[in-house]
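Section 3.1: Structural characterization of target chains.
Under the original work plan, the team committed to producing a structural model for every single-chain target entering the pipeline before any wet-lab resources were allocated. The record below documents one such target. The sequence was received from the expression subgroup and is listed exactly as submitted; it comprises 166 residues.
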Amino acid sequence: MPEIGRTVIVLVCGTLVYYHCAYRHASLVSLLSDVLIVLLCSLAILGLLFRQINISVPVDPLEWQISQDAANSIVAGLANTVGAAESVLRVAATGHDKRLFLKVVSFLYVLSALGRLVSGLTVAYAGLCLFCLYMLAENCQSISAPLSRFLGRNNGSSSNVEDDSI
């Protein structure tokens, strides 16, 4: 169930970013500064409120840090993604693999045509929505198997066992 909550949070944040940038015609820098201003003001109000009520809120800086292994895995994943993309483009650029070259060229042409028809932010938002639908579908598949066992459903297999002993 936590995956559904994460999906909803990503969809709501993506919708807010889309609204801020597409309909208000503001830049991402403006969005970032607005978010930081809201966070700063909210934390200041909470700090003043807690000080007025005499509640001490300990802030442990270690809670905001990630482990070295987590940082290494994030950087390694990013490096692998960039390396794979660079490898595909290098092979396509040499011209040895004609099918790969045609796939890359056609994909870039489709992206170019799509960029002329709609804004990049709309395409990014549509991609975010599709990603959220994919996450929900994956989560529903992972939930459906234990749920069917819990409800006593047996996925079409026959539960009647015939006794052949006479």
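The mean pLDDT is 75.
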